[in-house]
Specification:
The chain has about 60 residues and is α+β, with helices and mostly antiparallel strands. About 55% of the residues lie in helices and about 15% in strands. The chain is globular.
Length: about 60
């Protein structure tokens, strides 16, 4: 199984949001993330795709 993962700074750049905003989206469950080890948070690219698709559906 293959899943492309992004770092927090990479995901921030894609969404063009601050670290604070991204972590709030993760805490609220709007964007899924995983922990690698005890401190390395990674965001699946599919989680960002899902989040953006949901936002686009809300606007339409």
């Amino acid at each position: 199984m293959s899943c492309e993962l992004m770092t927090v700074p990479e995901a921030m750049a894609v969404l063009k949001v601050s670290r604070w905003t991204l972590y709030n989206l993760i805490r609220s469950g709007d964007i899924a993330s995983i922990l690698v080890g005890t401190r390395c948070r990674r965001i699946p690219v599919s989680a960002l795709d899902t989040y953006v698709a949901r936002l686009c559906e809300e606007v339409a």
